[in-house]
Sequence to fold (722 residues):
Amino acid sequence: MPRTLLPGSPYPLGAKPNFKGTNFALYSEHATSVELCFFDDAGKQTDCIKLLERTAHVFHGFVVGVKSGQRYGYRVDGPWEPQNGHRFNKAKLLVDPYAEAISGLVDHKAPIYPYDVTSGDDLKKDDQDSAAGVPKSVVVAHDFDWGNDCKPRTPLADSVIYEVHVKGYSKRNPMVPEELRGTYAGLGTPASINYLKKLGVTAVELLPVHHFIDDGNLLDKGLSNYWGYNTLGYFAPMARYSSSGDDGGQVKEFKQMVKDLHAAGLEVILDVVYNHTCEGNQLGPVLSFKGIDNTTYYRMVQDNCRFYMDYTGTGNTLNVHNPQVLKLLMDSLRYWVTEMHVDGFRFDLASTLARELHEVSKLSAFFDTIHQDPTLAEVKLIAEPWDVGDGGYQVGQFPILWAEWNGLYRDTVRRFWKGDDGELSKFAYRLTGSSDLYQYDGRKPYASINFITAHDGFTLTDLVSYNEKHNEANGENNQDGANGNDSWNMGAEGPTDDPGINEMRERQVRNFLATLLLSQGVPMITGGDEVGRSQMGNNNAFCQDNELTWYDWNLDAPRKRLMEFTSKLIQLRLSHPNLHRRKFFQDRQIRGSVVRDIAWYNTDGNEFSDENWQSTWSKSLGLLLNGRTLEYMDEEGKKIVDDSFLILINASADGVEFTLPQPPNGNPWGVVLRTENIDNPFEKIQLEDKIIVGGRSLVLLSDGEPGELEKDTAAPLTAAEQ
Fold:
C-alpha cells in the first residue's frame, strides 16, 4: 500500500513522530533529489518516497502512519564530481545525521564505498546498492518518564571525575545480573552505583557513547573498536551497550541509567567526538555525511577538493565553520542536555573544533556559539586541548567557561616522581592549580582537569610496572601507541614475585594518587586505577574488547587496600575546602592582618629561596596550606576555621629529614597520611618538630584536632571563596 506523503516541515531536522505519523527533514545544499526509504525488521527495503518539498536546502515531508520503531534511510542524488568534492551516489543508503537511534552493523564486505574498490580509483563511481551493509536509522518517540529526576549540579571545584568505559566497567562484575553486564543498565545497577558511591567520586565521564562503527581493518584482524572514537551518529546512543535491543530501546535504557546515577548524586559527562567521523578520507566508505553533502560536512583541501583536511589523524575533519555543521553540533549538544539529561561534555581533540581557516582561535564561531547558548551555560565543558595539526597543542589557551585536560600536569607529575632533574618548580605550579596557565585569563584552579593516566596510555599500575609498551596483541608489530614512558619500575618489567618490587610499585601508585587528590584543580581518575587494573603493558588498547580491558572485580588484598586508600583520599579532599579551593592562592586581609594562603618550605624548615627554585637537582619540598584564610562564621556566629595542611614530598631515592614550620592554627602537627606505610597509610601520629620522609614518598600533616579529618561533608566556604 502506498504511503501518504504530506509537505511536512523543514524544522526540526531528523525524524519527529506524533500521533498521526512522522516528519522527516534532511539538509543538503548540493543535492538534486532525496528519497526516503523504509525497511522492515529483517532489513529488507519495503518502499521509497521521494521528498518533494525543499525549503532552505532542507528536503522534508510528513509520512502518515509512520510510528516509532520504524527503520529508515536516505538515498541522495546529485553530481558525481569527486575532483570538486561532490560524491553523491543514489545507490548508497545513508544514515540520517539526526537519527536518535541506529540499528544494525556496517558490513565492510558490502558495496558501501561510492567508488570502484576493485580498481582503487576513487574517481570511478560504483552503482551497486549498499543497503544490505549499512545500519538503519530508527524513528524514536520521546515518551520516557523522568519523574523527579534532578541533576546533581556539583560545582566543578568540588568534583572528582571517574573516566569509565560503559562496557568494560560491569562486563565481569559478578554482582551485576549477567544479562545486564556491559550495558547502560549494568552501569545503572545498584551494585555499580554502590561501588562508585563507596569510592567517593562525583561524576562518571563515559568514553564515547555516540553510535560508532568498527573499523574494517580491525575486523579483518579479529579485533574491534573498543574505545568508540569512530562516530557515525551524534544523536544516537551506541546500540552495542544496550540490553534492550537496537530498535529504540537503547535510548530509554540510556535515560534510565542517567536517572539512576542522578538519584545517587552522580553526574554523567560524555566524551564526545565532534572533530571527525567514521567515513575516513577519499578512500573511505559512504555511510551518511559524505553522501548527503560532502563539501558541507567536511573540510576539503582548498585547491583540490578531492582530498580532505586531516587535523585528527583519522582521514577527515568535520567542517565546523560551516553554519549547518555548527548547527548540527549545537543541536546534538542541546539534545543530550535537554532530552538525555547529561551533565557535561569532554570534547575529543577540541583544538580541531576551534580552527577557523587553519589556526586555532579563541574567537572561533564554535566558541562564540557555545558561549551564548543558555542550555549549555549550566553544564560542564571540558576540552582535550590539542589535535595532531600544526599549532594544535593549546593547553592553557582555551577561553573562559572551559576546563581543560591538563597535559602538562600529567607530564610534570610523572617526571617528578620518576626522579627527573629540573622538575621541582614546574611540579609546584601543577600541585597548586597551574596558575601559570589559568590565573590571568579569568579562569580559576578548576579550569585544570588534573590526571596522571587516561584511557589513552598505560594504566597507573602499568605505568610503574613496564619500561616499554607491549601492544603486540593490536596486530601492528608493537608500532602503535605512544613511544615515551615516564614510568619508574625498579628495573623489572611486568608481574613479579619479588615482594620488595611490588611494595615499591604500590608505593609509587599511592604517590601518584595522593598527588592527584591533594592538588588544586579537578582530579580525574582513570577507571580501575584505584584497584590496580592492568592491561599487561598495552598502552593503546583501543581495539581490545576483551578481558585485557574489562575490569577485574576479583580483588586480592593489595587491590582492596589500594581502593580503600583512594576512597579515603577522596573523602579527605572533599571534606576540606583547603584541599580544593575555588580561587588561586593569594595573601588575604583577616582582621587587619595580612595572612598568607601558602608557603613553600625546604627540608631545613626555612622557606624556599630563589636559589632553591632554580635548583635542577632538588627533589624534596614542603607545601603549607593555611586554613586560617578559609575562616567563616556559622549560623550562630561562631568562627570556624578549616584545618591547615603541610604536604611533604620526597621524590629522591633516599629518606630525607624535614624540620617542621610552626602550625598556623597553634595546634601541633599530626600525621594524616604516609604513602610509605603500606598497611596503615592513614595512621595518625602526633609530631614534635621533625619527621623523616622516606625515599619516594609523600606525607600529609594537619594541625586539626584529632578525629576531625573524617568529616562526611565539606565545610561551607567563605563568601570570598564562593
